[in-house]
Input
Amino acid sequence: MPSVPSNISKSDRDLINELLDQKPAEFTDLTVTQYEALEEGVLAEGNHILIAETGNGKTFVAETVTKNALQQGDNVAYLVPSVALVSEKHATISAWTPESITVSQGHGYTEANVIVATFESFFEAVIRGYADRFDTVILDDFHEIYSSHRGPNIEKGISAALDRNAEILAISATVGNPHTIARWLNADLTISSEKRAVPIAEHPVEKTREDYAEQIDAIIRSNREKGPFLVFNDTTSHAEARARGVAKNIAFQTEKDIDFHELVEEAISTELTDKHRELIRLLNNGIAYHHAQMEDELKDLIEAYTDKGIIKCVFCTTTLSYGFDSPVQSVIVADLKRWDGFRQFIGVYEYVQWIGRAGRDSEIYDQAYAFVLYDDEDAADTFQFDIPVEKKDLEDVTSHLSGQVALRWLVLELINHGWDNDTDVLDFVQSTLFWSENVDQAPHHVQEDIGEQPGHDIADEVRETLTWLTNHGLVTKPIGQPQEDKTRYKSTDLGSALVEYEHSNWFDDRVRNVLELTDWLKEEGSELTPERLVERLADAYYACDEGYWIEDEGPVYKKMELHNLSGKSGTTSAIICWFWCAGASITDIEDMLLADDLSGLANTTSNLSTALKSVQLLYSPFDMPDEPEWLQIFADQVDAGVPGPDMYLIKNVEHFGRVLYNNLKTHLNNLGREADWDPGGDHFMIERLSKLLADRDERLFIDLVKETDRIGTTIGENILNCVKEWDPESNEMVEVPFSDSITDRREIDQLTKYHESERKSKDGADTDEGEGTSTTNLKSTTLDDFR
Output
């Protein structure tokens, strides 16, 4: 086979060879997939879809299209399904683009020649009007459109590209109805004849009465030479429990100079908990787990050391279904079913994605394996165990925008951003898969049976959506409608607030649900408390709910009853407002509540902080009550997990977060046990540091602070400067009005600044009696009231 197709132009052949020359030495010739795509005109004008198996070089085809567009003076939007893939593709493209070409990731739509971003980001850029510069759009791994979570936004991103008449290249490995998608995109279709670079041998394993961990253990022991392993599980708890179970009997050899204790400590934003120590023990045995409730940096750590081949067995949920290309030779599917009202099979497309994580590097492996546990005799037919992966029948990709739930967001977003009449909105809808599969591709006999203009029912549904949005005060018909056959609409302040709310977070939501939240905020008015707000958000979004439930009749339960908090969402509110925001360590909280594991609390609070910042947007309409003055600082405090007065340190000392805060607090406690300088643990840290500075010179202050674990000279000097500049009066912060707390020390106007007043006293200056040491009416920080 020639290195490049002979039927394409010389300029295209030169472009391909130039790109090959810019690649590493192993890129000598095109793969069959690349050859076929180029031969069938992927560099010609018009849209194109390439369907090819994993590892056969689809990305290189996308790069040739990108390079071709740049040479023609066009700008390129390179879209991927997840944030995790943005950096990877950005690095790939940046490796060969000249310095004169600006390649940006995630942002930079107004300047970049190539923007690498998610589908959601592109859709938002289009409707906000700053993506008009991009003439070519690459849809990489667009098969995640199958997902019910991300599918609607991916469909909207693709529809936005079609609405703008951009040239499109779509590449994917797993699509059940490629011809349907090609007709939607008005694209030429290339289905590669090349087999998967590394074939997968499937081995169905009937579930026995053994514990899952024991049976997975047996599979690994019998096939150790086929590792590393990736094990897919249906739930977070199963992923963790099975990892622990296998680690009891199996230990993989790892490099002894790797300090996972230090690496985990650096990756997390809290102190080490028992759960973290357990994970470290697993990591030292070459085993890990990976799921959505873990902090991002911890997940990144596990992915990085799996990629290096150090971690040999990872138990995961769906978090590693897409974009995970680490050198895994075998996948074990522990659960073919998941709970969705009842236990039911996962999709075949999802199963193919899972087992497709095996053998993704043909330079390392020539064979990959999938061991599949099943306990239902229908599994063999459903997942077609006897058919090669590349020949399995997959479900069709269908639209996520049918029905009022999805259409309400789309139509509201469009009206809010300039599609100001029903005709323009319907024109955009005609770019969606929803329209294509129901109108453009509807069989003629169906259209004849309907007996009406194709698309009439969808047009009615769009008008029904506009009526619903109007009736609920989200859009309005301006006075003075045009005479032409269209109706103008304008987003109300409330409608705009809902759109901004939706775009400010990643939570799945419905327009009706956000409206109900807005109405609830209006009803609460000035009576809204932090506890009530957290309870409401924890009830609305699973990602903001810690999932722990206090049911006993202990002190915390009684305090919850006193403040009308109940259930899991009420427990989450109590933990975050009364413990976390008072600076209590997770270990203290676990001990206090007799909870086995709250290590995911940092992730929960991060999500909750995002939700609180989104809530601020709902106060913008004129008929809403005033936004609580404490809401912004509360969102920041939930994210940081320190008492309000000490937020001064968090905000003003770079790289000083909850971990270093707790380390420094522990160090001060140890220093101050028998020292006359320490005003005591009942004081906030900023006060204790002020007292330390009053009692020591600046050099000694820095030396003492530097003795804290993970605090070096730079941070120590920044803390010193921050303390020197602190003035409780000029730096007074809004106090969050918690109903209760493990500390009753809440009057910020009684904060004590020691370091200037005591030095004046030492120098013989006149001071008022007690100046610099007043703690009038202050109660000590204690857990006793909650025990």
Summary: DSSP finds 33 helices and 17 strands in the chain. Residues 34 and 60 are 7 Å apart (CA to CA). The mean pLDDT is 90.
